[in-house]
Fold these 2 entries.
Entry 1:
Amino acid sequence: MEPKKRMIIMLSLVFSVIAGTVLFTVLSGFSWDALIVVIIVLLFLVYSIPRFILNRNDVVSDDEYSKKIMRIAAGRSYIVSLYTWLAMMWFSKILDDVFPETTTKIGLGIGIMAIVFLINIIIVRITGVKE
């Protein structure tokens, strides 16, 4: 796909996500669901804006090193998210008092998974990839 077409598709995707998030937040008022959605959208923007800038400058954003970082970060975050879901099941009585709705608990778990993935990407980029 041409870089210009990719840039247009990415911009339209970013704007539609931002518009959907604003509409969801305004229509639902302040709730935990809206906060989780806003956090996930912010993580999406943090991940996609550098790729957009690299694509605009005609720099390859998916080189071998970036793919290896993503693979390592995905593996680590997968393990951590399994333990996160296990802890959420373990403390389900406490979570029932704080978040009575099941959808809120699922959204919380997905939000935690996204945050853990972003933290793992940052850690792997700082520490580097060991051969």
Entry 2:
Amino acid sequence: MGHISKQLAIYVCLLFCFIPYTMIATFYPKIAESKGIPYWLIGLVFSADPLAALFSSFFLSKYMIKIGRKKILLSGLFLSAFSMFILSPIEVVDKNLMLSLSFLSRIIAGMSAACVMVAGDSVFVSDYPDDVEKMVGRYEAVSGLGMIIGPLVGIVLYLESLLIELIAFGGLILLTIPGISLMLGNFRDYVVENHKMNYLELFCKPKIMLDLGVNISVMACYGFLIPNLEIHLLNMGFSHWQMSLCFALLTFSYMVFSIYTNWLFQKLDARSTIFIGFLLIALSFLMLSPWKVIFPTKLDIILASLPIMGLGQAMIYCKKYLVPIYPHMIQTSLEYGYSKDDVLVDSLSGLSNMALDAGEIIGPIISGGLISLFGFENTGTLTAFTYAAYGLVYLFGSGLFSKWISNKKTVIPIIELE
């Protein structure tokens, strides 16, 4: 099989990884609430997914060279299907069994996501170094498409028999595995120059840590929304269909902006784009709550917050300066003296996905606990100020502020000479 079929196979794997991620957000929180499960415990259930992915990413980044990328990708599909089978009876079991099945399902789903994302990232960077930006655009488009389809699939499943439909969906994933295996074909041999890789040393490099912190921030945003947005919108008077469309609006706007971010903001320095993205996410949380000091509690304000949040996420995450493991972290690693080979790519892929997982863990746990104590409005407002604060950290930590001052000093003498 050729390069196109291999790429298509990886995109299908990503699709089946991201559809369940947003799919369960349209029905699980309400079912859990109806069984008397509190917000904070719902948050823990959703955090089990990225927690499992975090540990799996660490393991995979170290041993992918021995296991093989193809086996890892196919294992991700199998685990995704298995997680659907385990989750299927949650409507018909009691509270305690539902919690047990939920945690087990989310742990397996996290392992699945780690397999697909770590191996997929590594293949894109190592096998297609000249087409990284093109691959990234497609990667984000497929991810966004999966997150758009997820809520729509979820609401359809919820209207029918959830038990049967989840089993059928898991079965569909299993049926694709032989075809995906054929499409992936054979992978090239590994190139190894970094025979000894100290992950902690690589992680502690200041510029690498700043990049990873941005990844954490983006996924913490999703981690906040996935377990909490459904109940918030239903409490605001939205129907299940309207609520699902709101999820789709957020992910659709993210997908569209992720494709066109480089074109829309090509004249802006990448660090400036990321800084503005943080401010937009802060604004969107103030509107989503909404923070009544500034915004009235109106439907159009809440709806407008979702595409603004999608734009902010795309500006942070998809600007070529900071796509996970791609040009910037690799270039930074080379500046620190590392050689560019498959070991470095696998290591950065693992670290990047671990940072994303950490954001998914932090988001549900902290937001669930704070909402239980202070309510959605106050928690959303606090989250908004937190994102604005990290934006300021990035402003100074990335050297962007120093660059602005330097440019200003350069412009002033020119004006004086004129």
